[in-house]
Amino acid sequence: MKRMVMAVVLGLGLAGAAQAADPVEGVWKTKPDDNGNFGHIEIKPCGPAFCGTLIKAFDSAGAEVESPNVGKQIVWDMMASGDGNYEDGKVWSPDRDKTYNSYMVLQGDGLSVKGCVLGICRDGGTWTRVE
Hints:
The chain is mainly β. 12% of the residues lie in helices and 55% in strands. The chain starts with a helix and ends with a strand.
């Protein structure tokens, strides 16, 4: 009996560890900002939500550049709501230094990002999967 209980407990533990990552997890290339610059955002779980951190910055020619924003959180509190939808989160736009109430829609290797602040909405465009 003890062996059967141990086998069930071990099986449940391995099943939890083997669960696949959420499809939104990974590295995403942002749409170029007003200056033509773009970044790579790494999205991963942060508690029950998803957060994204700027891990690389690029100029309009595609050359990697130093930026004081590398390492900063760009996306936070984004909750999965099913069917590739993520909502109730925030997105910070470094080029405008504004934080938007945001939502994202995942379709294949494209992540549509939109948000609003004080009734003014901005289309963050579609980010493309890098990894």
